Amino acid sequence: MKDEGGFALVITLLITALLVALTVEFVDEVFIDTSARQNFTDAQQASIMAGSGIDLAIKGLKISLAGRTYNSLADQWAKPFKQEDEKGTLLVTIEDESGKLNINQIFGANGNILYQKNYDIAVRLLKKLGISPDLLDSLADWVDENEEPHPAGAESSYYKTLKPPYAAKNASLDTVEELGLVKGFDGRVMQLLQPYITIYSEMPGAININTASREILAALDDKMTDSLTSQVLDYRKSTPFQIPADLAKVAGMDTIATGLTTSTTTIGTAYRITSQATVKETTRVIEAVVRVAGQQSTVLYWREY
User: Which terminus of the chain, N or C, has less C-beta within 10 A?
Assistant: First the structure.
């Protein structure tokens, strides 16, 4: 009887341990399922909030740019917008794509230089960033319609040896990110270059001197020294340029300004909007590039992550 009692106790303990294990597993599954549902709900809410941020930014741009012949970083649209409430946090920022170099407006379909001034700016910009200008040969081959490589370039015969293999585009880039497929434009180069390039400014790719970065301004002309670049940046903080010729009002810029009137502008046409929404611990981001003309707007690019 004593042995039977001991055996019954062991069985009881085993059954109890099994029940505890099952209970723990059930609770864990319920917790995971509940968390997954909550995370999904939070993600959906964050996505909707981020989308509303894009809509808000577009409306703000239309209001801010209405009737304007110039825009600048002193305008309301250029200031980050942040909103926090019980639903979550929304942060919206806007960049003028016209303050960047349009890499689709450097080479033509035949591989020759389309706009000499854009090519010259590209060469100076790459040098300032510590990137070899030889990479422009690869860009020319990527967008031209032939299969004859430039001296430092590459056509489909090169790309088909890669893993996975692919062909040269033989057409203009559809996104800035596509440049990462081009020979030589590796992760390091793209990280350095991406803040200063675009494909969205209108022909002939005039650069907005009111919103261009220091690096782009310095690349506008061979005669742009660090001192002149700083003077331009300081001048536009208090007095945005209303027309490209106003560059001549900056001390030392009179002769340089004359040569830049056809390659610069003072008004943007396309804007990159980044809308980040956080609900609890879940964040969703939407990036959109929008062309704004009067009260009309066209979405050129959209990415959510």
Answer: N
Could you list the beta-strand ranges (E) of 172-295.
197-198, 207-208, 264-265, 270-279, 282-293
Report H helices in the chain. Answer: 2-65, 116-128, 135-143, 156-159, 187-193, 214-218, 226-238, 254-260
Q: How many residues does the chain have?
A: 305
The phi, psi pair for 278, rounded to 5°, reads: -125, 125
Cα distances (angstroms) measured from residue 12 to each of 4, 9, 23: 12, 5, 16
Q: What angle do CA 226, 190, 141 make, to 5 degrees?
A: 105
What pLDDT digit, counting tens, does each position of 126-155 carry? 999 999 999 999 999 999 999 999 999 999
Residue with tokens 């422009």: 136
Asked if the model's pLDDT at residue 55 lies above 90, the reply is: yes
| 5 three-state secondary structure | helix
Model pLDDT for residues 260-279, shown as the tens digit of each residue: 988 899 999 999 999 999 99
Greater confidence (141 vs 28) lies with: 141
The pTM of this model reads: 0.85
| 22: pLDDT strictly greater than 90 | no
3-class DSSP string for 73-127: CCCHHHCCEEEEECCEEEEEEEEEHHHCEEHHHCECCCCCECCHHHHHHHHHHHH
Backbone angles phi, psi at 65, to 5 degrees: -95, -5
Domain 2-98+269-304 -> CATH class: alpha beta
